TrEMBL record, chain A:
Its main location: periplasm. Its cofactor is heme. This is SoxAX cytochrome complex subunit A. It is found in: Periplasm. Keywords: Electron transport, Heme, Iron, Metal-binding, Periplasm, Signal, Transferase, Transport. Binds 1 heme group per subunit. It comes from Ancylobacter oerskovii.
UniProtKB/TrEMBL annotation, chain B:
This is Thiosulfate oxidation carrier complex protein SoxZ. InterPro entries: Ig-like_fold (IPR013783), Ig_E-set (IPR014756), SoxZ (IPR030995), SoxZ_dom (IPR014880). The lineage of its organism: Bacteria, Pseudomonadati, Pseudomonadota, Alphaproteobacteria, Hyphomicrobiales. It comes from the Bacteria. NCBIfam families: SoxZ_true. Pfam families: SoxZ. SUPFAM superfamilies: E set domains. Residues 9-101 form the Sulphur oxidation protein SoxZ domain.
Length: 257, 106
């Protein structure tokens, strides 16, 4: 994302220390802010390009992989049953690593430790496909962050990161997404930054991308050095975003301009 | 890997105009871009798309570098008889990807 520096600075450096959180009654998905045309592409599975990755994820689900020669389906059966609601409660606490883990990380962990296959790089077609496929099984379900005290510290860290000014433009996520979500920036609706539709198909990217790719775009936009894919910082931010969006429906795969 | 997504009505009445849509996962690399090392990224686009209805071509299109990745095509035809619609995408290397869908006409 390319922010016109002067515009962003003039609009947003109006000295917001910590912006007000959005009251629950005013929370709405980014899809609501999109043009009628973009919403129409998203709403119809025959025209939503994100469905191409959902289909690819579905083929991978059934394909044996790694030294185990087992498919996801061989352990999990029908994704429509076993994966329904899973994306709605991620990130979750992962007992194996003793830390919180995001959905893509969990899928890759299963791939490595249970299929004995090589790790899939972040933003690879395969991992995006599997994540879109698993995420799609929860479409329509409300985001339901787990009530798990072991996640409290990371969630609080996510909130702190969301409210911390960063980059050369010295803006926090909150400066835009809490204080100025009604506004527009360089022609785009700022939105409330809810993670409802991820992975999303973004017309600008001409492909599907993860929530972390989206957040990296915002960080580069304020000229901060983006966190690494899969980093504890991004998982913490995802935890806080899920809490902020609790109750909003999953829309994977959403379409953005 | 399923790389294509086609939508055709399952049933129609003879003579009815039906809407057909077809999409394929493809980078549509223009050939005009540079990679990170300054090297030109070779062109790789779909050149030709065609749809046959029961063996007879009812729609075709030439694609060009200015088209987006994952191109989406929508068109209409007249339902004549029960049969198969087949879709063919041919790329620069001559590689052909296909998809098909059945329609029942009464």
């Amino acid at each position: 994302m390319r922010f016109p520096l002067a515009f962003a600075a003039a609009q947003l450096c109006a000295g917001i220390a910590v912006a007000q959180e959005i009251p629950p009654s005013e929370r709405r998905s980014g899809t609501n802010f999109m043009s009628a045309e973009t919403q129409a592409i998203q709403a119809d599975d025959g025209s939503n390009p994100g469905m191409l990755w959902v289909l690819q994820g579905g083929s991978l689900w059934d394909e044996p992989a790694g030294a185990s020669r087992r498919s996801c389906a061989s352990c999990h059966g029908e994704a429509a049953t076993s994966m329904r609601g899973v994306a709605a409660r991620y990130p979750a606490f992962d007992a194996a690593s003793g830390a919180s883990i995001d959905l893509a990380g969990k899928i890759d962990q299963c791939r490595m430790t249970r299929q004995h296959a090589t790790s899939l790089p972040r933003e690879s077609e395969e991992l995006l496909g599997l994540t879109a496929y698993v995420g799609h099984q929860s479409r329509g379900m409300p985001i339901a962050p787990p009530d798990d005290a072991r996640l409290d510290a990371a969630r609080a860290e996510g909130k702190r990161l969301f409210q911390t000014r960063m980059g050369q433009l010295d803006l926090s996520c909150s400066s835009c997404h809490d204080a100025n979500w009604r506004g527009r920036l360089g022609g785009s609706a700022v939105t409330q930054a809810h993670p409802t539709g991820y992975p999303i198909y973004r017309l600008e990217w001409q492909t599907i991308g993860s929530l972390q790719r989206r957040m990296r775009g915002c960080m580069v936009g304020v000229r901060a050095e983006p966190f690494a894919y899969g980093s504890a910082e991004f998982v913490a931010l995802e935890l806080y975003l899920a809490e902020r969006a609790a109750g909003l429906a999953i829309e994977t795969p959403a379409v953005r301009p | 890997m399923s790389r294509t997504l086609v939508s055709v009505p399952k049933t129609a009445r003879a003579g009815e105009v039906i809407d057909i849509r077809a999409m394929i996962a493809h980078p549509m690399e223009t050939g005009y871009r540079m990679g990170p090392n300054g090297q030109a990224i070779p062109r790789k686009i779909i050149r030709h798309f065609a749809c046959d209805y029961d063996g007879e071509e009812v729609f075709s299109a030439e694609f060009h570098p200015a088209m987006s990745a994952n191109p989406f095509v929508a068109f209409s035809t007249v339902a004549t008889k029960t049969g198969t619609l087949t879709f063919r995408w041919t790329d620069d290397d001559g590689k052909v990807e296909t998809a098909s869908a059945e329609i029942a006409v009464s």
